[in-house]
Design brief:
The complex is a heterotrimer. Chain A is mostly helical. Chain A contains eleven helices and two strands. In chain A, strands 1-2 form a two-stranded antiparallel ribbon. In chain A, a hairpin with a 5-residue loop joins strand 1 (about 160) and strand 2 (about 165). Chain B folds into two domains: about 40-245, outer membrane lipoprotein receptor (LolB), chain A (Clam); about 255-344, no CATH class. In chain B, about 20% of the residues lie in helices and about 35% in strands. Chain B has six helices and 18 strands. Chain B has helices spanning about 5-25, 40-50, 140-145, 145-155, 255, 335-344, and strands spanning about 60-65, 80-90, 95-100, 105-110, 115-120, 125-130, 160-170, 175-180, 190-200, 205-210, 220-230, 245-250, 265, 275-280, 300-305, 310-315, 320-325, 325-330. Chain B has a twelve-stranded mixed β-sheet, covered by helices on one side. In chain B, strands 13-14-18-17-16-15 form a six-stranded antiparallel β-sheet, with helices on one face. Chain B is globular. In chain B, about 35% of the residues are buried. Chain C is an alpha/beta fold. Chain C has a six-stranded mixed β-sheet, sandwiched between helices. In chain C, strands 2-1-4-5 form a four-stranded antiparallel β-sheet. In chain C, a hairpin with a 2-residue loop joins strand 9 (about 220-225) and strand 10 (about 225-230). In chain C, helix 4 (about 105-115) packs across helix 5 and helix 5 (about 125-135) packs across helix 6. Chain C is elongated and about 80 Å long. Classes of the chains: A mainly alpha, B alpha+beta, C alpha/beta. Chains in contact: A-B, A-C, B-C. Chain A: GO terms for molecular function: ABC-type transporter activity. Chain A: It holds the Pfam family ABC2_membrane_2. Chain A: It comes from Pseudonocardia sulfidoxydans NBRC 16205.
Chain lengths: ~280, ~350, ~325
Amino acid sequence: MTLVESATTPHRRSAPMGRLLGAELRWVLRRPRTLVMLGLFALVPILIAVGVVVADRSGGGLIGAIAGNGLVLPVAAMTLMLALLLPLAVAMAAADAIAGEAAHGTLRGLLLAPVGRGRLVVMKAFGVLVVAVVATLVVAVVGVIAGLVVVGGADGTLVTLSGTTLGLGEAMGRVGIAALWTVGQLAAVGAVALAISAFTEHPLVVLASVLGGLIVFGVLGAIPALDWLQPYLLTTGFSAGADVLRDPTTWGELGSSTLRALCYMAIGGGITTSRMLTRDA
Amino acid sequence: MASRRGWARVGMGVAVAGAVGLGLLAVPAGAGAAPELPPVSAEDLVTSVVEAKDPGPLHATVTLDNALGLPAIPGVPQAANGTSTAQVWSDGAGKGRLSVPSGQGEKTIVDDGTTVWAWDSADKTVTKKAVGTEQKPPQADVTDPAAAAQKAVADLRATSTVAVDGTAEVAGRPAYELVLRPLPTERTLLREVRVAVDSEKRLPLRLTVLANGSSDPALQVGFTELEFGAQDPGMFTFTPPPGATVTEAPDRPGDAQKPQRPEPKVVGDGWDTVVIATMPPADAQQQGGRDGAPDLSSIGKEVSGPWGSGREIDTAVATAIITSDGRVAAGAVPAQVLTEALSQ
Amino acid sequence: MTASTDERTAARVAPPAAAVRGVRKVFGRTVAVDGIDLEVPTGSVLGMLGPNGSGKTTLIRMLLGLTRPTSGTAELLGHAVPDAAEQALPHVGALVEGPGFHPFLSGRENLRRVAATEPLLATSQIREAVGTALERVGLADAADRRFRGYSLGMKQRLGLAAALLVPRRLVVLDEPTNGLDPAGTRDVRRIVAELHAGGATVLVSSHLLAEVEATCTHVAVLQSGTLVASGELSALLEAGTGGLVVTTPDVDTALESLRGIGATAFREGDGIVVADGGPPAPEVVALLVRAGVAVHEARRRRARLEELFARLTEESP
């Protein structure tokens, strides 16, 4: 029986990985809430740009640096949104990826197809990463456009925090580095969110834990007596994105926060894999 | 095919590795094994430092670890405990650049040989000041460990034991550790001052101040990264960016007022030196820093004695008493030494 | 019963399409399945019957490798599950615990997503396979509507379509007629018959006994996590039903005389029942007539499955 079967049917144990990733990509990008969120994200840099132009007084921090220096906007927008909004998008994607599928009963279908459990983790991690990349790109691209069109100034150049002037090309390079770094931080958030997602059937639990966790991290990081905790907290490095605006770029914080993000990815990814391989569906 | 449970264990292993990695990231890069260096006497080491040639072009990161325990002074957050870093570039021929990053801004000072440019990203201002070639950027004497160490050695030799106490690795370079300890007769809060001296260039790399009663340094300033060699000449030029406000620096008010101030009185010598200055009320602002007018009347604790009354400010390495009649006594000594000096 | 099943299995020389041996599944303090041995013979249509909470779905989930048994082993198409489930599952179509789909996608898009994950489906065949499956469950007209707007029956049909995307060696349908109208129920019956005719093994769990009786070759009855009866449908219908029913007004006399010769007999309704193992029917009738008992009717009882099911599952207090 087995001999006959294997002679007549293509004997595969799993669908091609590319096809699985393609299906996941279509699913992630067709989800209405993903699209709504991306649309809202596109508005944020525009709102900041309009705010800076209307307010017409230089405040402190990165927002202040945008005035008359539009190319700071994409970096400032990414840094600001990394605090809560971008992690929200990633946490939502991760919540839908496993907990949401379980709630809809579709996780069972994937396991029965079968998509191997290991491949399923890869597929889901890919989907979350896509959301992180697309969300970051939307903010960066809209930020560049709004910076040049709405804010303008600095003759199409970027004035760094160090007081030097960079041409458009190099400025784009800096925005690209900031985007890449942001995706790295978001991937860490996504990995942890995915791990939580693997333990529940309620997507809201994932959202609440991730956002609650980020807020708790932020509070812990602000308590002087808990200084020693800082190197363990993912949020500690969240402000390092502004370092791309220095000339020369200071890589210390960017590097250490990326390493920290990699550790969180290993923790989240390891737990997700372990749980998905053993969990009942 | 390895069992699914086997792979699940691998997954947990990866997670644990991630947690361990996080722990390793949190541990400061441990000092490597003490390098083997030919022995040298303290006198030779100090002499070689004083005679050392200019190290030439370099780029360095200077880190200041402040655990002085200064009370919070309103308006001067920099004085609080913590770590701050700055980047220094020198072309070895008088031009230099200093970058002091802060949260989401940066102050940059560039000395291009003829003009010192000071840029502050917070308000996008550039202050320029023409200088002669000898003059250094205003903060160089504070952040340059070389000057700081040399001064400490010269002042403290008479009343201290000076010894070379082993070796250390600082900013990846082998260094001798020169240790100055107060003689037992000295009444001071300080336990010892250590200066790490580059074994090759004889450049002080790190200054560490240790106070009695604590194994952690009260103050440590030194290079955390140091790289010798030709630097990009572009680092030593500055063009005010579009949109910046450029102003010519006025003469520093301090320069004009300094001669008017009475010379401070020095009581004692060595480690238990006490400096007593008179602070006219109008000039009180000079104590706290250039920018602000920190209100010193709210910090410290009330003290009084035969010498009068005032406020005592304690830190890990020094004590100061500001009397109600406008005198300021300060030194690396316990409060009792200050009140004795004030009573004289 | 077991003997005959064993003989037939041996005669066919085919391993069972699915089997569990001594499986037990405990959730916290609840014992969902308590030591079941069951084989689903290759080529059979096995109906799994049992009241709600009897462990049917848990047993199916263990067979499909979705849940690991607390103890015991499960096997699917010759592969141990759950550890080697991925080798068997491409050949298995399943509709378990209701259809699971994404509400914001149309039926066709949902099915395309499922098809993309099917190992045995070449990428070029996906479009056609999806169309055929939709056609087969009668959902072609509603294929491009969002799943959100589907009726319960349409959702069930889409779930069925997902199980039928690829030619299967085993199809597992958990309550397939849930929410279906009579036409839908007929469609399910037709599809099961087609699968059976095509040589596939089908495992159907259902509370509709008529469905099982109409379409199944084998039956397994579960109660409180244990298997109370299993085997070929025809054998179950014949056997183990407890004897000869005699309708008579003189119950006491009849019982007395039967017990006199050592036969087991008891009162039931307006007559008595003589248990299996006693004297053959003609002798019983002759004995009763000799004892002056009026025998209105004597017949060997042939239970309908429903009767069997009711008796097996309602015995417990």
